[in-house]
Amino acid sequence: MANEQKGSSGTSILSLPTEVLSEVLARVASSSSTDLFRAKLCCKLFYEVSDANNIYQRVSLDKFEIVLWQKNHKVSRFLKNCRESKNPEALYRKGVVDFFTDKHEDSALECVEEAANSGHADAAYALGIIYIFVGRDELKCKGLRLLKKSRILKGRVKLCSDNLLALLRMIWVKNLVFLNPTSICFAMTHERKTSSWPMDADEVEESTCEDCACDEEIGTICAALPYR
Ligand SMILES: [Zn+2]
C-alpha cells in the first residue's frame, strides 16, 4: 500500500466523484454553515458542488438569527434557497414566524407541516399548538394527537415548548387566533394540573382530561406571548 502511494500523488479530495464530494460537503454543512462557507472559498469545484439542493437542504442554521433585524439580501437569498430545498429548520422558522405574525397564513402553515412531516420535532410541536388554537373538533384532535402521541415528540415536549416560546419572544404576535383563546374543557369540576404535558406518556398516568391538558398547554404559550 505504502509503495503504491509513493509513485502517485495520493488520493486528492478533488479526484473524488462529484456525488461523493457532494456528500462530504453536505455533512460539513450539516454541522456548521461557517465551515461550508469556508469550503466554498477553497476552489471553484467546492463552490459549484456546494450550490446544490442537497447542501441547502441539510445545512445547519444554528449560526443564523431566527429573526433578521436588518435586511440582508445575501442571507435572505440563502435562507430562501434552504426553504426551496426543503431544509426543515428553515421551513419551521419561516412558518412559525409568518403564522404568528399573521403573514401568509396558508403558506406559513404549509411550511410548518412540511417541516413536521420531515421529522423536525420543534415543527411538530408548533403544528400541534397551531392546530389546537385554530381548529375545532377534527383539527384540534389532530393537534392533541401530535402533542401526545407523536413519536418525534416522545420525551421532547418540554424542550420543544421552550424552543417555541424562545422564538415567540423574539416576534410580535399579531395573529388574532392567539389573542383570545377559548377554553377547550368546559367541565367545571375538572382540576387543572400545574405542570405541562407529560414528558413521557409511558411514565405518567393517563388520568388527566385531554381537554384540560390542552388548555394547560395553550395557557403556557399564551402566558408568554408578547402581543402588539
Ligand atoms: Zn377537563
Automatic annotation (TrEMBL):
Return the Pfam families for the record.
F-box-like, TPR_27
Q: Which Gene3D superfamilies match?
A: Tetratricopeptide repeat domain
SUPFAM superfamilies assigned to the protein according to its UniProt record, in alphabetical order = F-box domain (SSF81383), HCP-like (SSF81901)
Source superkingdom: Eukaryota
Q: Which InterPro entries match?
A: At1g67623-like, At2g35280_TPR_dom, F-box-like_dom_sf, F-box_dom, TPR-like_helical_dom_sf
Residue ranges constituting the F-box domain according to the UniProt record: 10-59
Protein name in UniProt: DH200=94 genomic scaffold, scaffold_1718
Q: Which organism is it from?
A: Coffea canephora (Robusta coffee)
